TrEMBL record:
Cross-referenced InterPro entries: Proteasome_assmbl_chaperone_2, PSMG2_sf
Protein name: PAC2 family protein
Record PANTHER family: 3-ISOPROPYLMALATE DEHYDRATASE (PTHR35610:SF8), 3-ISOPROPYLMALATE DEHYDRATASE-RELATED (PTHR35610)
Record region (Disordered): 222-246
């Protein structure tokens, strides 16, 4: 049964922005989510139970308790939520998962920012990023000065399903699409999203010095997950261009 088990009931949020951190191309969402949670020392707000999430648990260093592999973290001062995931969501489970997440977002008046990597064999410096929006998300992107797409494209996987659900049900939502390494974790793409995407949209200053300093360590730590996702062909989310006559 789909439910969000709220752990920190004392946390009060007004109209929070939620940053989605599902593992996908370049593990951009995963790196962004982990960085926000660690940098702001965000509190574990809720365990997430949705059909489509692998029946596993996560354990962490120095703790004997376990948590769900998909969780919500909150920062009341910044009115910020982060959806952190330790596992990929398969394409087959995308719609079920999206319905579960979107149902809760609707009930709690949250503006979601969905993240997707765009595979690029040779990235720009810095990586190119553009935004797409639904409802009030369009004006939010314009206010933040985020570029519009230069070509037609498609977002697939669970993130695509989340955006599709918002479109169908007339919900406000934002999607950020960034050029990413198609094979390995990409901290530089994540940095672009944090500095020029999430920061302006959520009205928060996000230090990224540690992300740059630890780029090689992050690549190494995330490479195993990236390889496992490639072998199973289970990217959590992916954007790709739709060119004429392809």
């Amino acid at each position: 049964m789909a439910r969000f088990d709220i752990i920190e009931k004392s946390i009060s949020l007004s109209e929070p922005v939620l940053v989605e951190g599902l593992p996908g191309i370049g593990l951009v969402g995963k790196i962004v989510a982990d960085h926000l949670v660690n940098t702001f020392e965000m509190k574990h707000y809720a365990n997430v139970y949705c059909e489509g999430i692998p029946q596993t648990v996560t354990y962490q260093p120095g703790q004997t308790s376990v948590v769900t592999p998909v969780r919500l973290y909150a920062d009341a001062d910044r009115d910020l939520l982060v959806l952190q995931s330790d596992v990929p969501i398969t394409p087959q489970a995308a719609i079920t998962f999206a319905n579960c997440i979107s149902g809760w977002l609707t009930e709690t008046n949250v503006l979601p920012i969905y993240l997707s990597g765009l595979p690029a064999q040779k990235q720009s410096e810095p990586p190119t990023m553009h935004g797409i929006g639904i409802g009030d998300g369009v004006s939010q992107l314009e206010s933040a000065g985020i570029d519009t797409p230069a070509e037609m494209g498609l977002v697939s996987g669970p993130t695509g399903a989340l955006l599709a659900h918002a479109l169908e049900h007339h919900l406000d939502a934002i999607g950020l699409i960034v050029e990413s390494d198609p094979q390995f974790p990409d901290p530089e793409a994540a940095r672009r999203v944090l500095v020029d995407g999430v920061g302006p949209l959520a009205s928060v200053e996000i230090p990224t010095g540690e992300l740059v300093d630890r780029a090689e360590e992050i690549r190494s730590a995330r490479e195993q997950l990236a390889q496992r996702m490639q072998q199973a062909d289970e990217e959590s989310t992916k954007a790709h261009p739709l060119r004429m006559y392809q």
